[in-house]
Amino acid sequence: MRVLHGIAPALYAARMTTDPDAPLRASLKRHKLFASALLGLMAALAAASYALPPGPWTTLLRDAAKAGFIGGVADWFAVTALFRHPLGLPIPHTAIIPAQKERLGNALGRFVANHVFTETDIRKFLGNLDSPGILRQFLTEPTATRPAAEALAGMLPKLLASIEDGRARRLLARLLPKLIGGRAAGVVVARALGGLVEGGRHQEVFSFILNQLKETLVAREEVLQAAIKERVREQGGRLVGWALGATVAKRVLTAVNAELERVSPDSSEMRDAFDEWVRFEITRLETDPARAAELGRAMQGVLAHETVQAWAWDVWARLRRALETDAALPHGRSVSVIESALASLGEILGKDETARARVNAAVETVVLNLLPAAQAELAAFIGRVVGAWDTATITDKLELRVGKDLQYIRVNGTLVGFILGALISLAAMALPGGGH
């Protein structure tokens, strides 16, 4: 016996583990037994009343017990008809839930979508949700940002390929000149030049130009001498050109080279003049709208030229190939740049309240814009899930969750019937001749 007492709890625990609805099933069974026992009590009292001696109290008990029994049976039939055919008989309008499960699923889906996922409730939920904090936690976690950066880098070739589409290419060809052709372009250029000047990089640009000029003069010295001699011949005649052309050409080139050599890397009048000119032009671009607009028009004209556009697209093609190659590398520069950008965004969200507010507003806008479509899809999804359940599954799940309360209906119906039967019997007795 002790062994049996030890095995029973183990078997019960195993059944509880394998069946997650075991507690609900046990509770429903207890309430069914109680309701059925009460109904059986009414039947027993009604039957016993016929064995008692005739009298007012016997009549009262019989009427009350019969009314309670009838009320209990009626409610048992109603509750049972929701889930199955009573006594297995195919009575019309019984087994309502199994027969109407698709309509029930659609109604449940519409209810959840339209009365649970409402715009007001979603706004309240998003208002209490720390979207920037969640995003920041994700962005500051290296184990999360690294895969995200690799995924974004993997999308880069497709994004770059979309720019090569004919429509995108024509659109950019029209937009770039317009974007660069206004006064704002001059301001942007002024700021860029200001950054170069503050860092002294403009002198490096100037040195590069001088070196290129020197190399060009050396490489094309013979051509330049011939051009100068021809110019001397045109101005002074054949004799002067023959006598002095070569000498003039040589002296001119020598003087130019000597002047270029005098421009030292540290300081010179030409470098100082270049520095002064650049700063003056930066000031004009920032303060003179006409000058900024003039530069914008010049840039627009340059960019609109077919040769420049062909050169720009050639540069773009080379850049695209380099980016695609780098994006395919797990430890490429593209992945590192994207990962650093994500980490920087996470730091900004932790410090900048304006950025946090913008994230919250963006999340709310996106969610609310998607809400109507999400509601429809949610309703359809719930309807499909419920409609796909087999009859036994849906009946079992619903009965386990509402069956307990329905058993109280049976109990109440039995007790209310018993009380009403007693009251009606008492009222009948109170009428003239009712006691006979």
Descriptors:
436 residues, mainly alpha, 19 helices, 86% helix, transmembrane helix, transmembrane, membrane, DUF445, Membrane protein
What does this structure look like?
InterPro entries: DUF445 (IPR007383). The chain crosses the membrane at residues 33-52, 64-83, 411-431. This protein is mainly alpha-helical and 436 residues long. It has 2 domains: 20-99 and 390-430; 134-351, no CATH class. Helix content is 86%, strand content 0%. The protein has 19 helices and no strands. α8 crosses α17 and α12 (221-236) packs across α13 (238-262). It is rod-shaped, with a radius of gyration of 47 Å. The two termini are 60 Å apart. The model has no long low-confidence stretch (mean pLDDT 75).
| Separate helix tally | 19
Largest sheet: none
Measured as a percent range, the helix fraction is over 70%
Computed over alpha carbons, the radius of gyration is 47 Å
Low-confidence stretches: none
Helix and strand run: HHHHHHHHHHHHHHHHHHH
Alpha-carbon distance between the termini? 60 Å
Rough outline: rod-shaped
Percent of sequence in beta strands: under 5%
Any idea how many domains?
Answer: 2
Strand-pairing-aware structural class = mainly alpha
Average pLDDT number: 75
